[in-house]
Structure formats: C-alpha cells, structure tokens
Amino acid sequence: MAFEYRLQKVLQLRERKVKEQEERVRQAYDYVKLCEQRIEEKKQEIEDKKTEIQMLYQNMLVSHHTLMASHDEFIHEVLDKQLEHLQFELQQLYQELEMAKEALAEERRLLVKAQQDLEVLEKHQEKAHEEWKEEQKRKEMRQLDEVAIQRFFRNAENAAEEEAEEKALILEEYDPEELDEIEDLED
After folding, report:
1. In this structure, which long-range contacts are made by residues 118-124, counting pairs with CB atoms below 8 Å and at least 24 apart in sequence?
2. Which residues, other chains included, contact 60 with Cβ-Cβ below 8 Å and sequence gap of 6+?
3. CA-based nearest residue to 145, from 134, 137, 156
4. Comparing C-alpha atoms, which of 22, 13, 10 is closest to residue 111?
5. Residues 6 or more apart whose Cβ sits within 8 Å of residue 106
6. Looking at beta carbons, which pairs linking 4-13 to residues 24 or more positions away fall under 8 Å?
7. What whole-number distance in Å separates Cα of residue 144 and Cα of residue 44?
8. DSSP states of 85-105
9. Distance CA 94, CA 41 (A)
10. DSSP assignment of 148-179, as one string?
11. From CA 97, how far away is CA 75, in angstroms rounded?
12. Which of 45, 67, 95, 118 stands the most exposed, by the fewest C-beta atoms within 10 Å?
C-alpha cells in the first residue's frame, strides 16, 4: 500500500500559488526595470533639449537682427516650456518608479509568505510520511508476531500429538501388567 497524503490537494494548491507569485514578482521586477529605462530615456531627452536651447542661445547671441529678437524670445519661451514639461514628466516617472518598487516589495513579501506556507505543509507531509512508515513497520511486526505465535502453537500441538502417539505405541507394545509395574516404579 502506497503512502497517500491526505492534504495533497492543498499542497498542490500552495505549490501553484508559489509559482503564480513568482510570476507576479518577475512581472513587477520587469516593470521596475521598464520604469528605470524610461527615466533614463527621459533624462537623455532633457539633456538633448538643454543642448538645443544652448545652441539656440549661442545663435541668438551671434545674430544681431533686432527684428528677430521677439521671435527668438518666443522660441526661447517655447523651448523652456518644453523643458519644464519634460522635467515634469521625469518627476512623474520617478513617482511611478517608486510605486513600482513598492509593488515589487509587496509581491516579494507575498512570495515569501507563500513559500513559508508551502514549506510548513511540506514538513507536515514529511512527518505524515514518516508516521505512515512507522505504522507500516508496526503492522509488519504484528503480522510477524502473529505468524510466530501460530507457528509456536502448531509446533506445540504437533509435539503433543507426537507424544500422545508415542505413548499409544508404548501402550500397544507392553502388556497391561508391565505398565502397572512401570507406573509403580515411577511413583
């Protein structure tokens, strides 16, 4: 008879829960990495915009056209607004990154809990299996004891039968007067 763990379905459920939680952790980690990548891209975009603004300023300083001054100021304002907007987007990305890191930490915490729950059940299964093996040994010992007892009684019964047969043979060989003399001697 093979060992059957009575909580096998629960164990399988917890194993599945651990795998699902590992997948959630992986997805949360991937999202954190994506946020970090988007931040780096936004930083590069900001640096590019700053370079563009610097070049525009240098061109404005070199150019002495007074008619272009108001146009240059307008372009300068537009570029400054674009830079401000990019920096605002960068701040939003940092906030998104923080939320993603918090979500990752929570998913990891849930994974640790799921792993602990699974470990508890696995230890319970091991203990139950050991108890089952001990019970199997006890049953086997009882069966062996029973066989030994039966063999003992059978041997004792056979010995008693053989003794009775020997006495019967002896009784047949001797005549009754000789037996009386033997019995008198034994007394």
Report:
1. 118/11, 118/14, 118/15, 118/17, 118/18, 121/7, 121/10, 121/11, 121/14, 122/11, 124/7
2. 68, 72, 76
3. 137
4. 22
5. none
6. 5/125, 5/128, 5/129, 6/128, 7/121, 7/124, 7/125, 10/121, 11/118, 11/121, 11/122, 11/125
7. 82
8. HHHHHHHHHHHHHHHHHHHHH
9. 12
10. HHHHHHHHHHHHHHHHHHHHHHHHHHS-HHHH
11. 32
12. 67
The answer to whether residues 108 and 114 touch, using CB atoms and an 8 Å cutoff, is: no
As to burial, measured by CB atoms within 10 angstroms (0-12 exposed, 13-18 middle, 19+ buried), residue 156 is exposed
Q: Which amino acid is at 180?
A: D
Taking only the tens place, the pLDDT of each residue in 42-97 is 999 999 999 988 887 777 666 665 556 666 677 778 888 999 999 999 999 999 99
Low-confidence ranges of the chain (pLDDT < 70): 60-72, 170-171, 174-187
Q: Are 185 and 177 in contact (CB under 8 A)?
A: no
Length of the chain: 187
The closest alpha carbon to 21, from 89, 130, 115, 134, belongs to 115
